[in-house]
Recover the amino acids of this structure.
């Protein structure tokens, strides 16, 4: 009997990692020795549940119900929606609206990453831009409802919800006794614990000019999230213009901040996700000022001349692997 039990357990091999397509992107979770089919299935089911609530791309989501009733009536918001939207509105306030969860009309209009992607006319952009206004969102916490008061307004939580998902996965895994692993939700990375006792995970920062480019910098992290926003995730090129998916609400056009990529390092993936998009839009100077306001947040910015700006807390830990990229503190400026 004892022999049978031993051979049963030795057959239940760990599943080191699994990849799913969910949240509109490729999500890979690697739990090493702690990976089991059941725990991965639970992770996938959690991500699917989040998608069903938070997606702006499916008509049956809670976010779409709120969008459909814009200008008509408040809609009961799912607790996930309320939690993400509350943080999104806080970040909108802190960034003076550079980050705006009501960016939906502009996202739909440009359609970047969809079959309908195109450069809209200036009139269309002005019309959509008039509907983008985080200050108009009415959240009734007592009734648990959200109301968008003007017809055509649309929430889009795509810049923050993957981070929320990563934080949720981390909590879920912790309750299952999993404290070591790495979660990658389409570039939104969260490490659980260390890679092996005392050894950090080495996270690569990709070449921002190439889709799925190779690592040009390395960063050791333990129990941290690293979230990157860049110009090569979703884009199209038209008449020599590179139109990417991070939109500046002030202009209605993809942000032209000279930055090619922004990576944010912190302990909360939702905050890091929102900040990676925000700093990208705000640009190097204002973006780094914003980062300073958060005690546990660091940033790596790459601009269009391959200069790398690093927040003070990271200067000594980052290693540049490709000499085409130069840390600003290493140049005469
Ligand atoms: P980030 O910089 O983190 O975010 C960029 C995205 O944020 C843009 O795509 C836009 O949606 C939004 N955004 C742009 N400008 C601003 C701004 N100024 N302020 C605030 N937000 C802004 N994609 C699909 O193609 N099909 C799907 O079915 C689909 N479902 C999804 C479901 C969920 C729940 C989520 C979270 C995303 C989904 N996506 C889907 C979107 C897809 O995965 C996005 O590419 C991703 O969320 C953007 O993340 P990022 O890391 O590339 O960039
Ligand atoms: Mg983001």
């Amino acid at each position: 009997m004892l022999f049978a039990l031993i051979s049963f357990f030795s057959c239940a091999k760990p599943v080191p990692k699994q990849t799913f397509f969910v949240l509109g992107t490729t999500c890979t979770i690697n739990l090493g020795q702690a990976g089991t089919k059941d725990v991965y299935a639970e992770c996938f089911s959690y991500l699917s549940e989040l998608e069903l609530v938070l997606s702006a791309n499916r008509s049956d989501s809670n976010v779409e119900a709120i969008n459909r009733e814009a200008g008509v009536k408040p809609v009961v918001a799912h607790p996930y929606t309320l939690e993400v939207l509350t943080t999104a509105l806080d970040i909108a306030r802190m960034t003076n609206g550079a980050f705006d969860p009501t960016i939906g009309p502009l996202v739909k209009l440009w359609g970047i990453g969809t079959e309908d992607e195109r450069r809209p006319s200036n009139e269309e952009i002005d019309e959509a831009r008039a509907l983008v206004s985080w200050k108009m969102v009415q959240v009734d916490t007592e009734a648990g409802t959200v109301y968008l008061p003007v017809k055509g307004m649309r929430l889009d939580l795509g810049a923050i919800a993957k981070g929320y998902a990563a934080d949720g996965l981390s909590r879920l895994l912790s309750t299952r006794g999993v404290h070591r692993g790495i979660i990658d939700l389409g570039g939104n990375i969260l490490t659980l614990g260390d890679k092996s006792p005392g050894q950090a995970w080495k996270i690569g920062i990709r070449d921002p000019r190439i889709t799925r480019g190779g690592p040009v910098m390395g960063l050791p992290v333990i129990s941290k999230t690293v979230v990157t926003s860049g110009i090569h995730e979703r884009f199209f090129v038209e008449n020599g213009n590179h139109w990417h998916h991070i939109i500046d609400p002030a202009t209605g056009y993809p942000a032209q901040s000279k930055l090619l990529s922004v990576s944010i390092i912190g302990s909360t993936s939702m905050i890091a996700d929102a900040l990676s998009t925000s700093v990208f839009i705000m640009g190097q100077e204002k973006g780094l000022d914003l980062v300073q306001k958060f005690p546990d947040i660091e940033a790596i910015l790459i601009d269009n001349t391959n200069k790398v700006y690093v927040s003070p807390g990271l200067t000594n830990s980052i290693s540049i692997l490709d000499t085409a990229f130069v840390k600003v503190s290493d140049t005469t400026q």
Observations:
- Confidence is low (pLDDT under 50) at residues 1-11.
